[in-house]
Amino acid sequence: MDILDHLREHPPRKGPEWGSGGIFGLKYHRGILYYTLSFEAEAYFIDREGLRKKYEFELVGPKPTSGGDTYNAVEAVDEKIYFGGWVHAPAIYRGKNELGATIDFSNKYSHLHYYDIEDDEIGLLWKESMHDPERWVGEVSEIIYNPYMDELLIARADGYTNLGVYSIDRGGGEFKKLADKPALKGSIVLDHACFAIHQYPSGLRGIECIDLIDHKINTVEYNYKEISVDGEDVVNPQVGSVASAYGKIFIFARGGFVVGDIIDNEYYFIRLFDIPNSMFSPLRVNTKVFGGGLLTSYNAYVHSVIHAREDRDKIIKRSLNTIVSPSLLVYFTPPTIKVVGTLGARVTSIEVVKDKIVVGCNTMANTGRYDSAPFDQGVRTFTILSQDIIYNQQPITMGIPGYIIENKVFGGIPLTGYREPRLIVYSNKENEILVNEYIASIPPQLITTDKHTLTPGRNIVDLTSYSGIVSFKLKKFMNEKDYIVIDLK
């Protein structure tokens, strides 16, 4: 608790990037709490006496620096905390023009550092840049320790070149490519390090597993209609985080999550909080192993567009900026999935410190190409929660305009623990809605599929007879005059 007393709010200030970064990489190790404040490019190391060290990435390049980490790339081994990401050093703000405002990427570096707890020293293991004003090398988005070879495995997917999985000795040395597929996040599963293959802009395409003993690679790509429990496709399944539990891999993405057996190559897509055409998703937040289960967040406001210059950008702007739900802290203990907390715009990092859960939060999203500014536009704060939240069951109200749904499958709403769950559809025409009920057991199971008739006006679909998880699909296209409310109490 002495450490948590020293955490503070970070209001908007310098850091030329897009919109807002956040508090990333929260890691409690050997009495030290580490995090990186992005976009200010400041790494903090706090002990019970207060701020032990603040590092501004001067080993990468001269100030002013910006960036830092936006994927929670951190690992701890023995006396060292390894942290990675990307940094502009120095940062160059191009300023405003008729389109909006941008920055220059010439000094954007991907990086890998360590902090030595015993010596209170920071070292730079590796950095790399394209030195191109418009493009950059793959950012470091995951760090995994391989204890068999005493090496660090580095995932890279966000960038234009040098993507895939790399290895480096913990003391530095050769930075060697092991796998070519763009890898965003990963986790150790059994005796493999498994990474989500992430193709921009389409999202999760499959999985790439590297044997920790001999570096042999097994790659599997997904067909969502084949692996989806409700038999439907998913829109834009961008990767959030990856974790391991129950001897399986869990890949959290926009629209739901994939759970799989990497030995038998059996994978299932379980739709969860899928609001198509929106960015309500578990993006840019980690998953914490907690109580033998998994704790993560599905976020309300991850990405945004402010300056829309073309018709396509205007459509994207409306979708991204439509807020349909609070951010939801979700706890996974299959077959039970439950919401244990509701928070604001976005959660960026989660860590457990003794008997508390520390949550890094932000009021603002990452923004688009022409939405740069010379300062971070969000308020970054810490929320300290009791571990007792895992016994909670939070009421939820989600409000979804018809233009977000169109005629796509949506939902994936866990009903366990709710006594009065209901779906309210405001329809301007006669329609029909399909309700799929499934259980997130391992393997998951589709239970029932029912049809309900909708009439013009207000329709209430009583969900009390269902358990587990339900997803929905409307027969006719929804438009501007239609609206859906998901009400869980």
- CATH homologous superfamily assignment of the largest domain: YVTN repeat-like/Quinoprotein amine dehydrogenase
Estimated radius of gyration? 22 Å
Number of domains: 2
Q: Characterize the main sheet.
A: 5 strands, antiparallel
Low-confidence stretches: none
Any guess at the CATH architecture of the largest domain? 7 Propeller
- Please give the alpha-carbon distance between the first and last residues: 33 Å
Strand content: over 45%
CATH topology (level 3) name of the largest domain: Methylamine Dehydrogenase, Chain H
Q: Count of helices?
A: 3
Helix content: under 10%
Note the quaternary state here. Answer: single chain
Query: Can you identify the CATH class of the largest domain?
Result: Mainly Beta
Please provide a written account of the structure:
This protein is mostly beta strands and 489 residues long. The chain folds into 2 domains: 4-390, YVTN repeat-like/Quinoprotein amine dehydrogenase (Methylamine Dehydrogenase, Chain H); 398-488, Sandwich (Hypothetical Protein Tm1070, Chain: A), CATH 2.60.290. The chain contains 3 helices and 40 strands. Strands 6, 7, 8, 11 and 12 form a 5-stranded antiparallel sheet that branches. Strands 2-3-4-5 form a 4-stranded antiparallel sheet, with no helix packed on it. The longest helix has 10 residues, at 311-320. It is globular and about 65 Å long.
